[in-house]
């Protein structure tokens, strides 16, 4: 009798397990076959997914900081022994400071994403963000963002969000790929828009805003595609059928800015 009851229980458990597997498999298959529509619910899901991405990045950046801290300490010891030059120690200090800044930036982004989230917009309203309560910390840069946004029909708050991601509002920023200034203009883009000095604040914001305007027009107001074009080039977006290219850097770039841009707070 006990043996029969045990067998029955095992069969019931196996039956439940099979049912769960069937339901899970069907759910995964449906997700793979159904195209993801650009809806508020999907944008919120993307933000939630990006929280996981940020957590992974944070762990990687923390690991990098620990590695650089150890390297920095070793270099300083070697410097005191006269084995390495001061310039190597100073470069190590800069690398360590930059790595720590990345950790802090990701921590701030995680904190932002943990606030109540509204659906992130996909299509831009030309001047929807002109009354947003934001500041770069520099009144002149704020004024130029609003001026060029107004002149070229681009939401100043979108320019602000993009600039924050591109350079952290540093007019002297230069990327390892050669992008320059506040809006990180590549040499070809700077030349296309008549920029003679990409580190000039006015020229840089004007050219970056016009480029963003042209991308928004090219992709029918789609903010996500315009941002992808700004990061990877419009050719890459068109190459993948007017979709965000499957580059980790570009996809993370778009998600970060869209997540922030979707959090408009009226002043």
Quick take:
By secondary structure, the chain is mainly α.
Summarize the structure in words.
The protein has 267 residues and is an all-alpha fold. It has 2 domains: 74 residues; 123 residues, Lysozyme. Helix content is 68%, strand content 0%. Helix 2 packs across helix 10. It starts with a helix and ends in a 6-residue tail after the last helix. The N terminus is likely disordered.
Task: Chart the SSEs and their pairings.
Layout: H1 2-33, H2 40-80, H3 86-113, H4 139-152, H5 156-167, H6 187-192, H7 201-218, H8 223-232, H9 234-239, H10 248-261
Helix pairs in contact: 2-3, 2-10, 4-5, 4-7, 5-10, 7-8, 8-10
Specify the CATH architecture of the largest domain: Orthogonal Bundle
Number of alpha- plus pi-helical segments: 10
| CATH fold category name of the largest domain | Lysozyme
Label the overall shape.
Answer: globular
Termini separation: 74 Å
Radius of gyration: 24 Å
Give the integer mean of the pLDDT values.
78
Low-confidence stretches: 1-43, 116-122, 125-130
Helix content: 55-70%
Describe this protein with a few key phrases.
single chain, mainly alpha, Lysozyme, 2 domains
